[in-house]
Amino acid sequence: MESEESTFSGVYARPSKPKATVVIAHGAGAGMDHPFLTGFSDAMNALNFATLRFNFPYIDQGRRFPDRPPKAVAAWRQAMQEATSRSEGQPVWACGKSFGGRMASMAVAEGMTSAGLIYLGYPLHPPGKPEKIRDAHLYGIEIPMLFLQGRNDAFARPELLDAVVARIPTATLQAVPDADHSFAIKGNKRSQQEIGASLAPSVAAFIAH
Fold it and tell me: Of 5, 28, 96, 199, which has the fewest beta carbons less than 10 angstroms from its beta carbon?
């Protein structure tokens, strides 16, 4: 795929009669082939959803630090256009892990069309810095939003996230008890693939409701 500034890669999977398409972006520290995302994508395919996961340009370029928002938003727009061109008129949703979800929300706030937004751990603030809250652009978004969030997520103090979601009429919060930012739960040994797959039923149910 190619945005206004860069080319970047993606992986598309489509069941025979998908209910919708979910475009999936990775977090800041790992690309689209991280087991968490492949597990989530495979589980969504099994639930009869098409998926397009993609790398932000910095991953394909071998750089450590994430793209700045303008470049990441441009990549989101291109990924959504690509998915829409393959969707045969069915709904296309934007979904992202951490950084990928925040960039999706910024893209929608700037006019990107999406049926809805799915956040797999929204990074509401940097760890240990709850005063640096990243919420201002969320209040102008009018499409459905699902915040899937671990209650032990260092990037989102529960009371802060609860207050943000309560202010957005189209937002729903589904908390995962005892889970951290990666949805790992202390004492519950699961692979990243299994953890990602475990979130798919909640996402599928939200899209279908």
Answer: 5
